[in-house]
Queue: 3 jobs
Job 1
Amino acid sequence: MDLPLLEDDLGRPALLDPHRVVPRGVTLPERAVLCFFPEVVAAVDPVRTVHLSSELGPWPVHVVEVDGAEVAVVQPGVGAPLSVIFFEELVALGVRAAVAVGGAGSLVPELTVGHAVVVGSALRDEGTSFHYLPAGRVVEADPAGIAALVAALGNVPHVVARTWTTDAVFRETRSRVERRVAEDCVVVDMEASALIAVARHRDVRLAHLLFAGDSLAGEEWEHRGWTRAADVRAALYGIACDAATIL
């Protein structure tokens, strides 16, 4: 089947470059944290804040201090397309290394709520990454990003593993979950493979830390109260900030 996603024009320049839409005269620190926990981002104490433009309205990017270093912090929306737009704009404003931190669904029962997962690779079941990298089933994460997160986690229990990145949160069928587990995926998310692809395309460093949240490991979906685990979410954000300073 001749799918548009398989068209090979990756080497050609885009008609719209992110430099053309970011605010003029604004620069950001070289390091950033893409935090998918909105309540955590809302609670930061910024040194300054700049705003990106979008159809969602002005979108804040906070600059915070972490151990004397400045780090840009943004909540990059939900899903691969939107998070990639904001990631691209951060890179256009000077970011050269980023750590993403967010939630994921557990595919295996041993990952209880709050368990930390360092993305070692991602299965590409989304559309955005195919506009940045040649077609392929799995994309490997940046080894430097993995190392930075493992160092920042220290004694915090974690696994380095594969995630299944999908666009269709309401089409995660039992048979598809079983196939993904057979391919060594332990969690499912909506952004990882696309962010890895952008980082590789733009030659910037990236690490991705996931929080095991709801569960698809049983016969029925379980929420498990993962959005209310405020302390764990805040702690993982702090770990992501520490990793950003050494990435």
Job 2
Amino acid sequence: MIRIDTLWLYTQPQDMRAGGDRLLNIVGSARAHHGYLFANLRATRIKLLVHDGFGVWCLHAGRFTWLQHPPGDAPAPAALRLTAQQFEALTVGLPWQRLGELSVISRS
């Protein structure tokens, strides 16, 4: 099992033909037990770079609920820090951006 203590979500779409080396250039320097998550323009593919303390792994998979920005909003930061719950929700296709508001149910 690869341990990930901190997960970073990169908000700019990437060409999924890029390998680990090219994505690592975007990260700069990968820190041990950190994961770096990237998606393509249509959010149909993701790649995850993980530094396990010895080397960097490049994992990729299918469709996910990616970051959505309403028109006119300020541009997203280059990377966002995700919690373990947000990452788990992202990888199963749930609205991970709304986890905080979904944790409370109230009657109107």
Job 3
Amino acid sequence: MEEAVLLNQTTVVTCFRLRGLSINQNVQMAAFAMFLVFYVLTLIGNILIVITIIDDHHLHTPMYFFLSNLSFIDVCHSTVTVPKMLIDTWSEEKLISFDACVTQMFFLHLFACTEIFLLTVMAYDRYVAICKPLQYMTVMSWKVCVLLAVALWTGGTIHSIALTSLTIKLPYCDPDEIDNFFCDVPQVIKLACTDTHIIEILIVSNSGLISVVCFVVLVVSYAVILVSLRQQISEGRRKALSTCAAHLTMVTLFLGHCIFIYSRPSTSLPEDKVVSVFFTAVTPLLNPIIYTLRNEDMKNALNKLMGRVKGREKK
């Protein structure tokens, strides 16, 4: 009898409404202009990094191999949410189909989790390079790098499948409005017509635990690196500190969002949208800024690439 009542009360949801960043039209137009610029710069910057690393044989090292992976992930990560958000600023309804919502959640968590694992691997790469330089090419051989890349992409895929499969199985009914500008598991499961307490615990134990554990590992890695740097000469110390500071900035901004969102119950806070903006639009843009403008090797390789391109245009 109870199941029959539940079925009668449950409406099959075929789409959701995204609330967006604001209901104020002026704010939405300002957000459109700002995020369009962010997105274009993200694409240009990260694609240039990938092309430069592929083009310059001097950058065919483990560090830049992982950096090219990071740039590729940032392009994909930003593309999952920002184009839809830009389109929705011109729409009053801001609808997204159920299938599109699930697809967005899957790829969002795929790229986010893969990036978390990648940042951890990059920290390990810097640890070996700084603390064990004589063993670096043995420990971080190309075979090891490829295996690590396959492992982190596989881990991200398994994580994403686990979360989205939990979300798909839930029954959904009115209200159908998601309090954000993209679909994410915590906001979507709040619309389910059933008790989601156990699923929320699984999300915290999955996404939250991954974020916290990786963050702790990263902090410990950099602590060991900083201790090791005390024994190096000033020039080597300065360059290593610069690299580690850039990496740690990215880690803090990216993992800070994941810990804030996924390490607590699925409750909406006013800060959620602000944090989500940094997660989806700002952080992917910081990668080319931090890793290119602060890296002499990348700047030299980029200048050489631009010089060859201009030379071909003149011919």
